[in-house]
Design brief:
This protein is an alpha+beta fold. The chain has six helices and eight strands. The protein has one domain. A six-stranded antiparallel beta sheet has the order 1-8-7-6-5-4, covered by helices on one side. The radius of gyration is 19 Å and the shape is globular. Keywords: Membrane, Transmembrane, Transmembrane helix.
Length: 301
């Protein structure tokens, strides 16, 4: 989720740890489920694990606890930006109408999309995740066989933000009011699985540490935008082994705007520091729109 992903590469950042390009986008790879009938039994294999990168997570503790604000103070943080009209928290994750998809009934589709919403909330909005890096709520929504691999990718990799949002140990929400906008859609994949596509922007209001900016800061200067374009997959639960029941992480990319580039490279989210002249920056208006192609937005890192 990074500014100017137009120059980003598909190479593993661990191979180029100092590369500015590699910090702009965080990508996760698809995990595949193979189902083979053997003597009326199902043999399930995981063929491709998420990319493992280099990240060390520190405990957030009370430093990340948001400051209590009135509703008017909270609204002022978003005033004058597109996020002012965004829904708050999980209200911004609207589910598509549950309709039959191939062999999946409307009820199946409803179950899969509701589980996807719960997973997104656990990944991007849950205070336990944001403030303490607690993965338990998120992992509980995923197939058990996948959980160790996702845990490894998040805890060891700069690609953590393509799975979950965790604040840097020194970062703090200015108010516990994250604005969300985007869409979710459902299709049937090539393996006969349901593919749930989720395209959202998450707007985090963060306190600024290290001094006040010079002059009048631009609107939205305390907002960090995370844009996630990702898929989750869901198989007919009766046709897979117990260890494979639950959501599976599909492909995904994440981008961020007005963020601290160094923290982003380590898999953390924090507000961009002040410019050398003491002025604050702010996200471009188009960065708020989940329909905007992130490759079209320039930025400093």
């Amino acid at each position: 989720m990074p500014v100017d992903p137009s120059q980003s590469s598909e190479l593993d950042p661990s191979e180029h740890p100092g590369s500015r390009t590699q910090r702009r986008r965080r990508r996760r790879q698809v995990t595949r489920l193979t189902i083979v009938a053997v003597a009326a039994a199902l043999v399930v294999g995981l063929l491709l694990a998420p990319v493992v990168r280099n990240l060390v997570w520190g405990s957030g503790g009370s430093a990340n606890t948001p400051v209590a604000m009135s509703s008017s103070q909270a609204a002022s943080l978003f005033a004058g930006t597109p996020a002012a009209s965004f829904a708050i928290g999980d209200a911004g994750i609207q589910l598509p109408a549950a309709q039959q998809q191939g062999s999946y009934s409307a009820a199946d589709v409803g179950t899969a999309t509701q589980l996807t919403k719960q997973t997104l909330v656990a990944a991007r909005l849950d205070p336990a995740m944001l403030q303490r890096g607690d993965l338990s709520g998120y992992l509980a929504k995923l197939a058990p066989s996948l959980q160790p691999m996702v845990t490894s990718a998040v805890q060891k990799g700069g690609g953590a933000l393509s799975y979950v949002t965790r604040l840097a140990p020194t970062a703090k929400l200015a108010v516990d009011e994250i604005r969300v906008s985007g869409t979710m859609s459902v299709s049937v994949g090539s393996d006969g699985q349901l593919v749930i596509s989720a395209n959202y922007t998450w707007v985090y209001p963060l306190d600024r540490a290290g001094g006040k900016p010079k002059g009048s800061p631009p609107l939205g200067s305390n907002l960090v935008i995370v844009h996630t374009v990702e898929t989750y997959e869901w198989y007919q639960q009766a046709k897979v082994a117990a260890t494979e029941r639950g959501l599976r992480t599909g492909g995904g990319n994440s981008y961020a705007y007005n963020k601290d580039c160094n923290q982003f490279g380590r898999g953390y989210l924090a507000l961009a520091p002040l410019a050398a002249d003491g002025h604050a920056d702010a996200p471009a208006a188009k960065a708020y729109d989940p329909k905007t192609d992130p490759n079209t937005l320039p930025g400093p890192c």
